[in-house]
Amino acid sequence: MKILTITCWSHKIKYHLFSGEERTLLASGMIERVGLGGSFISQTVPGREPIQSDAGDNDHRSAVAIIIATLADPQNGVITDASEISAVGHRVAHGGEQFRHSVLLDELVLGSIRKLQYLAPMHLAPNIAGIESAMRHLPAIPHVAVFDTAFHSSMPECAFTYPLPYEWYENHGVRRYGFHGPSHLYLSRRAAVHLGKPAAACNLITIHLDRGVSLCAIRNGLSVDTSMGMTPLEGAVMETRCGDIDPGIQVYMMNLMGLSAKELEQVLNNKSGIAGITGQQLERRNFLKAALDGDTRCALALKIETYRLRKYIGSFLAIAGPLDAIVFSAGSGHLEWAAREMALEGLGCLGIWLDPDRNSTVRSPRQELEITGADSRIRTFVIPSNEELVIADEVAAIHSSSNG
């Protein structure tokens, strides 16, 4: 059984091809500049040199065709033709309250997802375009939607309800949903292995570090709170998103600068966070290096980021209960040691001590390592996330149940 996973953004598609019950990774890749012209595709196959080639002008529909052709390329591919693909898993950013677990896609389900676009317009539109194109190119096999929000459907009402007019929730779905569900689920499963306990017996704080950043409080294996909200804009400081701010700032700046709602949304999503503080669009590793080298604005941005992380860790410790572990995803690589050290600084009063030497030895982007200090009552791990593996597992489970 070969499972293809697809994650679509507005101008980028990430894909992975897995094989067998062990989910052996056959190939992974990315097609970039979708819909912008000058597109290119890069693909990595374990044991081979990575390849990159021009993909011309394309949209999501033709981009999926290019991905399939690259996987089946006689020289660089890993399959003979598309018929070897057994099923496709699609990462979908938002399932609203309707989708609390992964589902087999058909026109009815796809129609329901289309109706949820108002909850995440910047994310769901490319997700839907990718699903539509993949179902056209691979019509004879199952397609499964795996929702970022589903893992957080276990949050209690007091955690997901905003202190706003209750009718906004009843009539418009205004509530906390949370995101990065596959990542938090994967991190919790791997932490359970390291702890030697069933996942359902673990109390954790998991921290997903990427362009988007979110934290999750996990009690007995279930999400009970998370930092992102109705949209991915709430929560921690991110690469270009502001995270938590005083809502009054938005009204103030709209009035002061005459900003439209759309213009303000662009600022909060694409010109804030680390980019807003530094005034630069920096790759994560370059930002960390600049901060450690003494760049004033980058150093400030790192302090703000890690200060906010520390606040969330402290508050989620109260929510998750007696904590087994804190789990960081790997982020951008070895320079993340500084962010982890700063985020956990001063938490010894809560029984959290880091081993600086072990923390700084995390080098490989796929390395799982415990970085707990000798006197720590709460263990700390660095575990690279693998959302695609979770998606493939979900697809395999649904495919198996639908066939049996």
Detail the topology: elements first, then pairings.
Blueprint: E1 2-8, E2 12-19, E3 24-32, E4 39-44, E5 51-56, H1 60-71, E6 87-92, E7 103-104, H2 107-114, H3 121-137, E8 143-147, H4 157-160, H5 166-172, H6 181-195, E9 204-209, E10 213-219, E11 222-226, H7 247-257, H8 261-270, H9 273-278, H10 284-292, H11 296-320, E12 325-328, H12 336-344, H13 356-360, E13 369-370, E14 379-382, H14 387-403
Parallel strand pairs: 1-6, 6-8, 9-12, 12-14
Antiparallel strand pairs: 1-2, 2-3, 3-4, 4-5, 7-8, 9-10, 10-11, 13-14
Overview of this protein structure:
The two termini are 15 Å apart. The chain has helices at residues 60-71, 107-114, 121-137, 157-160, 166-172, 181-195, 247-257, 261-270, 273-278, 284-292, 296-320, 336-344, 356-360, 387-403, and strands at residues 2-8, 12-19, 24-32, 39-44, 51-56, 87-92, 103-104, 143-147, 204-209, 213-219, 222-226, 325-328, 369-370, 379-382. It has two domains: 2-147, ATPase, nucleotide binding domain (Nucleotidyltransferase, domain 5), CATH 3.30.420; 197-387, 2-Layer Sandwich (Nucleotidyltransferase, domain 5), CATH 3.30.420.40. Strand 9 (204-209) and strand 10 (213-219) form a beta hairpin. The protein is α/β, with parallel strands linked by helices and 404 residues long. 38% of the residues lie in helices and 19% in strands.
- The dominant shape is globular
User: Which structural class should the secondary elements be placed in?
Assistant: alpha/beta
Quaternary organisation:
single chain
Classified in CATH, the superfamily of the largest domain is ATPase, nucleotide binding domain
Q: And the CATH topology of the largest domain?
A: Nucleotidyltransferase, domain 5
Kindly state the number of beta strands.
14
Q: Main β-sheet: number of strands, strand sense, barrel status?
A: 8 strands, mixed
Please write the CATH class name of the largest domain: Alpha Beta
Number of domains: 2
Radius of gyration: 21 Å
Strand order of the largest sheet: 5-4-3-2-1-6-8-7
